[in-house]
Write a structure and sequence with these properties.
This protein is α+β, with helices and mostly antiparallel strands. 42% of the residues lie in helices and 13% in strands. The protein has a 3-stranded mixed beta sheet with strand order 4-3-5, with no helix packed on it. Helix 1 packs across helix 2, helix 2 (21-32) crosses helix 4 (55-67) and helix 3 packs across helix 4 (55-67). Belongs to the Fur family. Its main location: cytoplasm. Fe cation binds at residue 127.
């Protein structure tokens, strides 16, 4: 069991969330995934192991994880929500051709939040940054 999974399970325990085999499988899948899967992706990956599990079960458990602060939901326009178990400060690059989402590191833009709060009077809770383009697979260019 990875350290991240152990930490996530401990956090759920302190919030009183009962760990079912389905929850464990969904959380493990998310923590191991670098693809920012949709609920449907998660369902399709786990349906052979849990034939009685529905997409609604996956959604309901994702909501539990979001409320517990273990998962963030990424929404982009009309496309399906994607889910990310990496709660560290990081940003996303989105491919406009295939829809792939890739993480990238950049120093957190706290000054942007402070400026927004100062200029708008908002109590800023956070921000999100995405860059858009065409991934290496879609352009046929490989990274060196």
């Amino acid at each position: 069991m990875t350290v991240h999974l152990e930490q996530a399970l401990a956090k759920l325990k302190t919030t009183g969330v009962r760990m079912t085999p389905q929850r464990h499988a969904i959380l493990s899948f998310l923590l191991d995934s670098m693809t920012h899967p949709t609920a449907d992706d998660i369902y399709k990956s786990l349906e052979s192991k849990f034939p009685n599990m529905s997409v609604a079960t996956v959604y309901n458990n994702l909501k539990v994880f979001i409320e517990a602060g273990l998962v963030r939901e990424l929404t982009y326009g009309d496309s399906s929500s994607r889910f990310d178990a990496d709660m560290t400060d990081h940003y996303h690059a989105l491919c406009e051709v295939c829809g792939k989402i890739t993480d990238f590191e950049y120093p957190p833009l706290h000054d942007v939040e402070q400026t927004a709060a100062h200029q708008t009077g908002f109590k800023v809770r956070g921000h999100r940054l995405e860059v858009y383009g065409v991934c290496a697979d879609c352009t046929g260019i490989t990274k060196h």
